[in-house]
C-alpha cells in the first residue's frame, strides 16, 4: 500500500518593525522559516533601494516567501484630504511589495468616522469599496494580491463576518488575511471565520489570547482552539502561510514548535 506523503505547513512570522528587515531575514534563514511578513505598524518608513535589493536576493537564494503588512491607514475616511493620501500610500506599499518580491499585501479596512450615525457609516463603506476596488486593480497590475485583515476595534470597517461578506460581494478579486487572535477578541470562533471564508483566505495570522484583549500570546496561553483550527485547515487543503504574529524571536520558535506538534497530531 502506498504511503501518502504528509504535506508540511508553510510557516512564517511577522517582524516587529520594518527597519529590522535584514535581521529578520537572517533569523528566518537560521531557523528555516518559509515565510516572512514585513511589518508596517507605526509611522511609514521608506526602505532604501540597497536594502530592497539585498532582501530580494536573500529571499530568492533561501526560498523564503514574502508578504508585506501595510501601515494602518485611514483609507475609508469621509474626509478626502485624509482618505486620498491614505489610498496613495497603500498604492506605494503595493509598489514596494512588487519591488521586494512579495506576492501579497495585508491591509486593514480603515475606520468609521461616526459609528453611531448610519448615514455616515454607509458613506464610509462607499469610500471603502471605491478605494479597495482601486487597490485590487492596482495590485493586479503589480502581481500583488490584496488581503483584507479583520480588525478588533469597534470603529473599524471590517470586524465581523458580515462585514467581510459585504466587502467580498462588492469588491471582485479581494482576498482575506485572517487574524485568529482578532476574531477571538470579538467573541467569534476563528474556526467559524475560516469555514466561511476559506476560499478567499491567503494568509492566517497566528497568536493566542483569552478573548479580553489582543495579547499576541504564545499558542496555548489563551483559549483559541488551535487543534480544531488545524483540523479544519487540513481538511480544507489550506497549508499556509501561517504567520506567527508573536514577539520576540524566541517566542516565534516556541509557537512554531507547538503549532507543528498540533499539526502532526491531527
Strand content: 5-15%
Order of helices and strands: EHEHEHEHEHEHHEHEH
Named at the architecture level, the CATH assignment is: Alpha-Beta Barrel
Distance between the termini: 21 Å
What number of domains?
1
From the alpha carbons, calculate the radius of gyration and give it in angstroms: 18 Å
What does this 3D model show about the protein?
This protein is an alpha/beta fold and 266 residues long. It has a single domain, classed as Alpha-Beta Barrel (TIM Barrel). 45% of the residues lie in helices and 14% in strands. The chain contains 9 helices and 8 strands. The protein has helices spanning 21-30, 49-62, 80-100, 118-141, 161-170, 180-185, 190-197, 226-236, 249-265; strands at residues 11-14, 35-38, 65-69, 104-107, 145-149, 175-179, 201-206, 242-244. Strands 1-2-3-4-5-6-7-8 form an 8-stranded parallel beta barrel, surrounded by 5 helices. Strand 2, helix 2 (49-62) and strand 3 (65-69) form a beta-alpha-beta unit. Helix 1 packs parallel to helix 2 (49-62) and helix 7 packs parallel to helix 8 (226-236). The longest helix is centred in the middle third of the chain and has 24 residues, at 118-141. The radius of gyration is 18 Å and the shape is globular. The two termini are 21 Å apart. The mean pLDDT is 95. It holds the Pfam family AP_endonuc_2. This is Xylose isomerase-like TIM barrel domain-containing protein. Residues 43-251 form the Xylose isomerase-like TIM barrel domain.
Amino acid at each position: 500500500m502506498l504511503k501518502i506523503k504528509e504535506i508540511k505547513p508553510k510557516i512564517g512570522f511577522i517582524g516587529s518593525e520594518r527597519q529590522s528587515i535584514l535581521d529578520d531575514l537572517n533569523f528566518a534563514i537560521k531557523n528555516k522559516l518559509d515565510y516572512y511578513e514585513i511589518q508596517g505598524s507605526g509611522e511609514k518608513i521608506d526602505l532604501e533601494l540597497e536594502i530592497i535589493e539585498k532582501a530580494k536576493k536573500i529571499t530568492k537564494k533561501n526560498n523564503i516567501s514574502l508578504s508585506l503588512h501595510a501601515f494602518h491607514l485611514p483609507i475609508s475616511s469621509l474626509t478626502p484630504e485624509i482618505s486620498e493620501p491614505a489610498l496613495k500610500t497603500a498604492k506605494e506599499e503595493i509598489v514596494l511589495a512588487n519591488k521586494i518580491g512579495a506576492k501579497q499585501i495585508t491591509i486593514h479596512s480603515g475606520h468609521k468616522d461616526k459609528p453611531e450615525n448610519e448615514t455616515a457609516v454607509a458613506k464610509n463603506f462607499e469610500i471603502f469599496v471605491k478605494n479597495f476596488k482601486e487597490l485590487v486593480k492596482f495590485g493586479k497590475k503589480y502581481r500583488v494580491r490584496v488581503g483584507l485583515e479583520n480588525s478588533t476595534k469597534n470603529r473599524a470597517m471590517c470586524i465581523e463576518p458580515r462585514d467581510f461578506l459585504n466587502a467580498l460581494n462588492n469588491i471582485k478579486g479581494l482576498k482575506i488575511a485572517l487574524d485568529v487572535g482578532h476574531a477571538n477578541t470579538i467573541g467569534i470562533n476563528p474556526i467559524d471565520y475560516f469555514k466561511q471564508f476559506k476560499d478567499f483566505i491567503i494568509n492566517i495570522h497566528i497568536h493566542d489570547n483569552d478573548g479580553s484583549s489582543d495579547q499576541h500570546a504564545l499558542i496555548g496561553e489563551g483559549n483559541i482552539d488551535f487543534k480544531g483550527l488545524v483540523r479544519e485547515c487540513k481538511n480544507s487543503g489550506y497549508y499556509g502561510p501561517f504567520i506567527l504574529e508573536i514577539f520576540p524571536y524566541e517566542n516565534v520558535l516556541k509557537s512554531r514548535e507547538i503549532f507543528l506538534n498540533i499539526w502532526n497530531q491531527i
